[in-house]
Amino acid sequence: MMNASDPVKAAVAAHWNRRAPTFDSDFGHSIATADERAAWDRILRLIAGGRAGLDALDVGCGTGFLSFELAASGHRATGIDFAASMLEAARKKAADRGAAIRFEQGDAENPPFAAHSLDLVVSRHVLWTLPHPEAAVAEWVRLLRPGGRLAVLDSQFDPGVLISPSQNARASSEYAGLEGRLPFLGGRAPADIEALFAANGLVEIGHDPLADLIEAHYRRMQVEGLPPQRRRRYVAWGNMPR
Question: What is the model's pTM?
Answer without folding.
Answer: 0.93
